[in-house]
Amino acid sequence: MQTPRLTVRDVRARPVAVPLDPPLETAGGAIPTAPLVLVDVLTEEGVRGSGYVFCYTPAALHPTARLIVNFAGLIKGGPAAPAAVEEKLQRHVRLLGPQGLTGLAMAAIDIALWDALAKASALPLARLLGGAPEPVPAYASLRAMSPERVAEEAADAAARGFTAVKLKVGRSDLAADLAVIHAVRHAVGDRTQVMVDYNQCLSVPEAIRRAAALDGEGLTWIEEPVRADDYAGHAAIAREARTPIQIGENWWGPHDMAKSLAAGASDYVMIDVTKIGGVTGWVRAAALAGAAGTPASSHIFPEMSTHLLAVTPTRHWLEYLDFAGPVLRSPLEIHGGRAVASGHPGIGLDWNEEAVERFLVD
Q: If residue 114 lies in a helix (H) or strand (E), which one and from where to where?
């Protein structure tokens, strides 16, 4: 299929802080707002492509938006072709390195370019990539950490049709981990799958000790128990634990994923569309997971991930944690514990401009 030729006219980046109610609690602290940069690629042909990135901290909002605008100067007047744009931007950042805010900025542009191409082709992104937008199994990523509040969240998720939930652990000691897991089990029963996420807060020996105790809890996976780039450490934990180990959301590009897979760092993989390199990076990562036969799940960004999991041979779970919904005209829908991708051309990111203006950060 021949895709339409588009030319980049301009790139717009808008920083917003979307309130999170309730806040997202992690072992590293609470996140009360979602700092997002909304990106639009405008083309000479009148097609607009959109995307967004999550900056984790408000301090990164303006620097990320500025990087995106700076990169726009390198691609204006050129083809709105993701591969060509990626090659050009990678050349410019080779000595700096394509990680961190630089990586987020390039991924934001890549996502918006793919959205523009899908719209110009009158296809949902999943179909443009050779798949089909179909319901994807989703788990509810819970926000609270205290046993009482997380149990309420879990019960609400189960009532809405979710068959799996993920909770944050690692606050103090093993007893605290077990208390919150047992509270969730009591709230949802044994038919609901339960995952836990340590957000990199343990040492390798402590992670091995806790995993041994958690092996009796029937968990679906233990996520990022130690520092994200400690592939040898994760491999040691994976060898000792009976519960599957899950990592991947902090890989900066498919090359990091390849190193992790080679080290045997995890049983499952979790791909973050912005850190892996946008849609272009995801497609490469999905091929690596497919070649290794490793189940692949998504990390946040559910609107994009529903399309991308459709073309992931070893697709596993979609993480449902809604950050962008308040600034979208039509947020992603969940029915019976499954995410339903937009069947409209593109990704399905149509900004609610009134909300964007309200949450805009000067």
A: helix 100-120
Could you tell me the two tokens for 206?
A: 């402590």
The answer to whether residue 299 is catalytic is yes
Out of 168, 275, 307, 316, the active site residue is 168
Q: Which two tokens stand for residue 88?
A: 């050009």
pLDDT tens, the chain, 362 aa long: 567 899 999 999 999 999 998 999 988 888 999 999 999 999 999 999 999 999 999 999 999 999 999 999 999 999 999 999 999 999 999 999 889 999 999 999 999 999 999 999 999 999 999 998 889 999 999 999 999 999 999 999 999 999 999 999 998 899 999 999 999 999 999 999 999 999 999 999 999 999 999 999 999 999 999 999 999 999 999 999 999 999 999 999 999 999 999 999 999 999 999 999 999 999 999 999 999 999 999 999 999 999 999 999 999 999 999 999 999 999 999 999 999 888 899 999 999 999 999 999 99
SS3 category, 276: coil
Q: Is 344 a catalytic residue?
A: no
Backbone phi, then psi, for 48, in 5-degree steps? Answer: -115, 130
Among 282, 284, 277, 283, smallest CA distance to 252 is for 277
Report all structural domains of the chain as residue ranges with CATH numbers, in order of start.
8-123+354-359 (3.30.390.10), 127-340 (3.20.20.120)
Q: Using CA atoms, how far apart are residues 99 and 265, in angstroms rounded to an integer?
A: 20
Tell whether pTM > 0.85. Answer: yes
Show the tokens assigned to 50: 């959109």
Pairwise CA distance, residues 135 & 295, whole Å: 17
Active-site residue identified among 119, 166, 275, 299:
299
| Gyration radius of the chain's alpha carbons | 20
In 24-81, where does DSSP find H-type helix?
61-75
